Amino acid sequence: MAESIPATHEESHGDSHGGHHEESWVIKYLWSTDHKIIAMQYLFTGMFMALIGGFFAYTFRMQLAFPGESIPGWGMLTPPDYNALVTNHGTIMIFWVAMPVLIAAFGNFLIPLMIGCDDMVFPKLNRLSFQIFFLSTVVLLASFLVPGGAFGGAWTAYPPLSAQSAYSLTPWGAPLWVLAVALEFVAFLMGGINFVTTTMNSRAPGMKMHDIPMIIWMIVIASIIFMLSVGPLVAGAVMLLFDQLLGTGFYDPARGGDPVLWQHLFWFFGHPEVYVVLLPAMGIVVEIITTFSRKKFFAYKATLYTTFAAGIISFTVWAHHQFIAGIDPRMAHIFTVTTLLISVPIALITFCSIATLYGGSIRFTTPMLWALAFIFEFLLGGVTGIYLGAAGSDIYFHDSYFVLAHFHYTFFPIGIIATFAAVTYWFPKMFGRHLNETLGKIHFWGTVIPFNVIFIPLFVLGLAGQHRRIYAYTLFPDLAKAEFQDLRVLATVALLVLLVFQVVFLYNFFVSCFKGRKAEDNPFEANSLEWTAASPPPHGNWPELPTVYRGPYEYSVPGREKDYWPQNEPS
Amino acid sequence: MSTSRTANPVPYSTEPRTPAVPSGVLGMLIFVATETMLFAGLISAFTVYRASSVVWPPPDQPRLPFEETAVNTIALLASGVLLYLACRTLRAGDHTKGHKFLLASTALGAFFVFFQGAEWVALISDGLTLTSSNLGGFFFLIIGLHALHAIAAVGVLFHAWLSLRKGFVSLSLLAAAEVFWYFVVGVWPVIYLRVYL
Fold it and tell me: How much is the mean pLDDT over chain A?
């Protein structure tokens, strides 16, 4: 049966094989309403886009390290191409990698499995969500093939540069970019409605609010933040599209418009968006750390309520991106305070994860390494953010490589490290086979070490005043010094190493998909419900839906023979 | 089933769950929350723009028809009330009466859309267009977006009425349509007072 809503249509009753149709490959994998298939569609699209985004990073980092030389795989990089590649690297990595993988793929895969139901509440809406997302991907990639090339006005698309083709020089690329982003938001809106409604209404009998695994709460809260913040951005995007195509002057100062208005609308969404991707990442880390520490998660309720608090505060920090955009200094003070304030709940969640480790019997599996790396690297990202949140120091750091390095120290742990943690942890459940642990660890070190070697030099360059968005530093005598150039080359070489090590992951992933050791139902001896289903779970997830008797983190309970206690086991 | 070992004081129930809010309504409520933020974004952008303009309204632009639209506003609010009555009578099981209320509500909604269309034709011929000034830009953007919602909602209400005439309407569809129409009706007075006044 394809839907969890009470079936009223005749075709759902017409067959005798436990509600299953014999489906063709297309229906089964491309037109499915099954949440697991949709999760895979999001995951593979996200992985494909990550390769493209990574390739873009390679091209412009090569240009910065070896300006004016032909880049293997691309050729000479012209300034408009450089702009388009940087812009779309950012856009792709945030909107087409971090969001589809962390929220859409793992949200779709985990929510029904972890709360114990057979599918999302609105399965057809879910299918439509992916289809629109796929369309948005096509539109974004198509923008590279139109006259004038892809949009090059940075992923923040500030007007007036982005609002008129006379400035952006991309008469087709800029509107296509806005359209792709808008379509993507519609897709995630549909996904978010499903996530929240399913979690609220379809939980297994017995699962109370405080028995919901933290990752599910994090995805739900992230979806709520996303849906409440995306409206103003869509409003702003429509106005931008009208400016580009219909000749309105919403952002044109010459006609009474206000370019800073876009910055407000964009960052009103843009900052909560950080928490939209951060919260699922932290949820993943909580699940993994608890499982591999064999200990109850420290302070479940405190973490849950602080997450809500972080979600609320995240709506009040946006103008810290605009300290030098001419906003009133008194307003800047307010936003400094709220920005520093939001580090408190996030620090609390991090401390709870660390406290969970204390006294546990830790198993250093590959997913555990990724989860610990997340905490360590994200900590650096969070601490460097304090300098940017304070208006006084931000005036110096603004638009320098310090911002860029800080940003990547938050988003790389979120979008890459936590994603690898999740993929390696749930891989046995998703594909029914184990990944190779040795290759997993080689890939781990080959990713985390080069990551630091890329971005620590960029912190140094930013402190020395190196500005972002410069095509060739040879034109700027102050920045063209040899010691700076050496750091740029170091960062680029580290990026090459990082990219090469991703081949190890891809090899491990695809070979293990087909040839890996067969996975048992609960290979990591974890408590939450997804491990009680078969690996991989069949359509409908369980022959009989589970009942829940306790919270998800009852590890090492005294007096029990086993050190774990599945949620569905009657006491 | 003893729960003595778990710290939780409330015993675990294994009864199937009955949702506090039906899924269709909850989904629509979340959607409406997003829509509210969309309109909030547009209206606050308009407010900021208006507050920072030296002269308001732009002197060479036609005045917005505040008085005529008051009639239309009342029609829309009445449509909302009628839908409430329709749903109440339908849930009580009185189909003939609910049927009439639903049709009246739909008709008033359609009246609102047509009145608005006529108003647009007049304004455009008077020289207020999307590109004539930012007043025109914001006016057509905000009112047009609301009109799109109204048209979609009237379509859903009409669909519900048609299925009711055939003898069956899904109560969850009706409840979701109800939430959406209340949103379209409820956001209008805010738009009216901010944009027209």
Answer: 92
The answer to the question of residue B11 being in a domain is no
A441-480: per-residue pLDDT in tens? 999 999 999 999 999 999 999 999 999 989 999 989 889 9
Q: How far is CA A291 from the centre of its chain?
A: 22
Residues of chain A with Cβ-Cβ distance to B145 below 8 Å are: 238
What's the number of domains chain A is made of? 1
Chain A nearest-CA residue for B21: A201
For residue B87, give its domain range: 33-51+63-196
Among A194, A248, A264, select the one facing B137 at the smallest CB separation: A248
Q: Which residues of A touch B21 (CB under 8 A)?
A: 200-201
Q: Is the dihedral of CA A276, A278, A280, A286 positive or negative?
A: negative
Q: Which residues pair with A433 in a beta bridge?
A: A518
- Residue A557 at interface with chain B, using a CB cutoff of 8 Å: yes
B172 and A CB contact within 8 Å: no
Chain B CB contacts of A210 below 8 Å: 8
Q: Is the pLDDT of residue B9 over 70?
A: no
- On whether any CB of chain B is under 8 Å from the CB of A121, the answer is yes
Residue B4 falls within a domain, yes or no? no
- Structural domain contains residue A568: no
* pLDDT of B11: 62
- Asked if omega into A536 is within 30° of 0 (cis), the reply is yes
State CA A182 to chain mean position distance.
Answer: 17
CATH number, position B178: 1.20.120.80
pLDDT in tens, A44-77: 999 999 999 999 999 999 999 999 899 999 999 9
Q: Which residue has the tokens 């499995």?
A: A113
Task: Tell which A residues from 518 to 547 touch B, by Cβ distance under 8 Å.
Answer: 547
C-alpha torsion sign, points A11, A15, A18, A20: negative
Which residue in the set B2, B33, B40 is minimally distant from A571, CB to CB?
A: B2
Give the domain CATH number at A165: 1.20.210.10
Domain assignment of residue B10, yes or no: no
User: For residue A165, what pLDDT is reported?
Assistant: 87
A197 — contact with chain B (CB < 8 Å)?
yes
Would you say residue A163 lies in a domain? yes
Contact with chain B for residue A208, Cβ under 8 A: yes
Cα A240 to Cα A91, A119, A259, A266, A422, distances in angstroms: 17, 38, 10, 11, 37
User: Residue A552 domain-assigned?
Assistant: no
In chain B, how many domains are there? 1
Q: Report helix angle A259-293 to A214-245, nearest 10.
A: 160
Whole domain around residue A243: which residue ranges? 32-532
A202 chain-B contacts, CB cut-off 8 A: 17, 23
Q: What is the pLDDT of residues A410-437, one digit of tens each?
A: 999 999 999 999 999 999 999 999 999 9
